[in-house]
Amino acid sequence: MSNRRSNRNNAASKSAALLCATFCALPITASALSTDRQQTMKVTSAYSKLTQGNAKAAGSAYLKGNVRIEQGSMKATGAEATLHQHPDGARNARGEDVSGDIQRIVLVGSPAHIEQLQDNGGGLMTADAAKIDYDADTGIAVLTGGVKVVQQGRGTFNGEHMTYNTNTGEMESGNTASNQPITMTFEPKKKAPPAKPADAQPKKADADGTP
Predict the structure, then answer these.
(1) What is the mean pLDDT of residues 144-165?
(2) 102: confidence class by pLDDT, cuts 50, 70, 90
(3) How many domains does the chain have?
(4) Chain centroid to CA 39: how far?
(5) 2, 33, 173, 199: most buried, per Cβ within 10 A?
(6) What angle do CA 55, 60, 63 make, to 5 degrees?
(7) Does residue 63 have a pLDDT over 50?
């Protein structure tokens, strides 16, 4: 009897996790501000180690101590970060030269933090996690460890793992083999206040002055 109950509980847990994984894949958030990618990236840290790239190997930069990265509305902070560049002669899917451009950013901290405005007036998105791994080519960020995402005016997410597509706004999380809980809250859409009834028009007085 106990084995049957345990099997039912495991099946229920897996079903719930699968539901969360499917539900979280829906585009419930706005996409990141697209114009940020055309802005200059500014990086500061207490320590840095640079490795020059060439045609055979990509360059990289290792940063440590009060790391801060800014690009347009995007702001990221952490204890350590590694920036990976494209090698010389690299081209993107459109055939454009991306030599030396940032291809990947890995940020770690307690927690690492990133925030960015969203397209189409989507408000501010903030995210905290032990590790944030962002691929600039695909626009996909993978967050792991104590993940908390807050979408201004939309809701919040808490879990241990999330994949966030900054191009489409899709967020995916959940693992059918994991017992780690996922919690989400959704803010109700703000409704416009009801229209006030038109003020009653005063009755016209008769010729003798009687209303």
Answers:
(1) 86
(2) confident
(3) 1
(4) 19
(5) 173
(6) 170
(7) yes
- Of 76-80, 124-128, 203-207, give the lowest mean pLDDT range: 203-207
Helix (H, G, I), strand (E, B) or coil at 22: helix
* Domain membership flag for residue 209: no
Residue-range definition of the domain harbouring residue 163: 2-186
Q: Is residue 78 part of a domain?
A: yes
How big, in percent rounded to 5, are the helix, strand and coil portions of the chain?
15, 45, 40
pLDDT digits (tens, 9 = 90+) for 172-210: 876 545 566 555 555 555 566 666 666 655 566 555 655
Q: Is 155 part of any domain? A: yes
The residue count for the chain: 211
Long-range own/partner contacts, residues 90-93 (CB < 8 A, 24 or more apart): 90/58, 92/137
Nearest to 150 by CA among 110, 116, 181, 119: 116
Neighbours of 174 (CB within 10 A): 21
Whether 182 is covered by a domain: the verdict is yes
Question: Is residue 146 within a helix (H) or strand (E), and if so which, with residue range?
Answer: strand 140-151
Could you count the other beta carbons within 10 Å of the beta carbon of residue 53? 18
Q: Which helix (H) or strand (E) holds 23?
A: helix 2-24
Are 150 and 111 in contact, with CB atoms under 8 Å apart? Answer: no
Domain containing residue 178: CATH number: 2.60.450.10
- 62 class by beta-carbon count within 10 Å (0-12 exposed, 13-18 middle, 19+ buried): middle
**pLDDT class of 6 with cuts at 50, 70, 90:** very low
